[in-house]
Every structure is written in C-alpha cells, then in structure tokens.
C-alpha cells in the first residue's frame, strides 16, 4: 500500500522539485525494462527523433484524492489511433520550449488553459516507436476544471486515481510484437481502459519519482 502522506499536492511537488526541463528535448532515456528489448529495437528508438511534449495532468481533488487525467485518442488518427495517451504533441516552431508545447497541445485537445496548470516538474524525454522524443511535464490542475474535447483528436477523457497508479501490483507485465518478436512491456488496466506503451512507461517513471525513499 502507498502511504497517504504521498498523496497530496504538496508532497507531489516536493518529490518533483529537483527535476528540470531537459536542455536537449531529444536526449532520451529508455524506459524501465528496456534492457530486455532487442538491441536493434533500442537503437531504432533513439535515432533521428523529433521533439514532443505531453502534460501529465494531476487533478487535485483534495488528499488523498489526487487523480491523473488521460485521454483516449480518436480512432481516425494516423498514429496511435484509439490508444490511451496524455494530451500533447510535437513541438512547433512558435513554441518557446517543450513546456509550451505540452500546454498548447493540452489546451487544443482538452480545453485546459495554460494558466490553469501549475507546473510541478518534469520527467526525462522518452522515445516512441513513431519517431518522437516525448518530454512529460507534470502539472497540477484544480478539481472541477471544465473540459472541451477536440473530437478530431480525442474520443474521451477519464481520470485514474493516483493511488491505483502508484500501487506496483497494478502494473501488469505484458508483451508486444516488434518485427515478429515479443518484447516485454508494462500496462495498466482501469475501468475498461488499457493503458500501455509510452504512456504506461511514463506512469512507471512518475511512480518511482514519487515513492522513492
């Protein structure tokens, strides 16, 4: 069980206080468990990456009621259609940095204004199979924030209790196919939703930041 002392906005901020925005948003860190992946897969995940940012929106419902907002991507999208993801996307020329990217994309996808997000910290950039280096930005959002979903990108949004995501028993060992080979991954299953891929690995990294001793 996770101590309730870790399930407050203040405690989360303390755990992430020393994290910093990466100087190079394409300098990726492979996720936990990647040492078991084939060498060619690891190499392909770190070559010619484009910078991108996502927001990990933590909703402050009052201790111990923190939750994480996730989206289900539209089935019509070219990449990762129908998958669960954080709001975000690729860096554009007008973005000042990756934080600006994540906040802009979040506003576009789910209607949360940048001014409504209190940035708590950062996770290391992580590669995706579609050629992006994704920097997760952890942000606190007050409860009751109205959402406006961009139906062309987002099918729905839902919340997962932080207590569920911090419990190691809920991180399920699974496999995915890569060029005809099975590679180990981790996933979460909550309320009929399958959370896997880079999103699940980001949650594992966040968990270790929070519950470290």
Polypeptide structure, described:
With 213 residues, the protein is of the alpha+beta class. It has one domain (4-211): Nucleoside Triphosphate Pyrophosphohydrolase. Helices cover 22% and strands 33% of the residues. The protein has 5 helices and 11 strands; from the N terminus they run H-H-E-E-E-E-H-E-E-E-E-H-E-E-E-H. The protein has helices at residues 9-16, 39-44, 98-110, 162-166, 197-211; strands at residues 50-60, 66-73, 84-85, 88-90, 118-122, 126-127, 132-142, 154-161, 172-178, 181-190, 193-195. Strands 1, 2, 3, 4, 5, 6, 7 and 8 form an 8-stranded mixed beta sheet that branches. Strand 9 and strand 10 (181-190) form a beta hairpin. The two termini are 14 Å apart. 31% of the residues are buried.
């Amino acid at each position: 069980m996770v101590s309730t002392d870790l399930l407050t906005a203040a405690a989360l901020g303390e755990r992430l206080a020393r994290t910093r925005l990466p100087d190079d948003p394409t300098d990726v860190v492979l996720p936990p468990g990647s040492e078991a992946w084939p060498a060619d897969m690891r190499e392909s995940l770190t070559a010619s990456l484009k910078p991108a940012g996502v927001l990990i929106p933590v909703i402050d419902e009052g201790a111990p009621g923190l939750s994480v907002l996730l989206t289900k991507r539209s089935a019509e999208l070219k990449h990762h259609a129908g998958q669960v993801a954080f709001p975000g996307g690729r860096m554009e020329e007008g973005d000042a940095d990756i934080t600006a990217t994540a906040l802009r994309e979040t506003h576009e996808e789910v209607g949360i204004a940048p001014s409504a997000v209190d940035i708590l910290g950062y996770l290391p950039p992580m590669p995706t199979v579609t050629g992006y280096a994704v920097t997760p930005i952890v942000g606190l959002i007050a409860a009751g924030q109205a959402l406006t979903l961009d139906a062309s990108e987002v099918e729905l949004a839902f919340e997962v209790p932080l207590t569920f995501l911090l419990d190691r028993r809920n991180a399920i060992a699974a496999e995915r196919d890569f060029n005809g080979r099975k590679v180990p991954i981790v996933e979460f299953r909550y309320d009929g939703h399958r959370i896997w891929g880079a999103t699940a690995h980001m949650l594992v990294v966040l968990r270790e930041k929070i519950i470290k001793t």
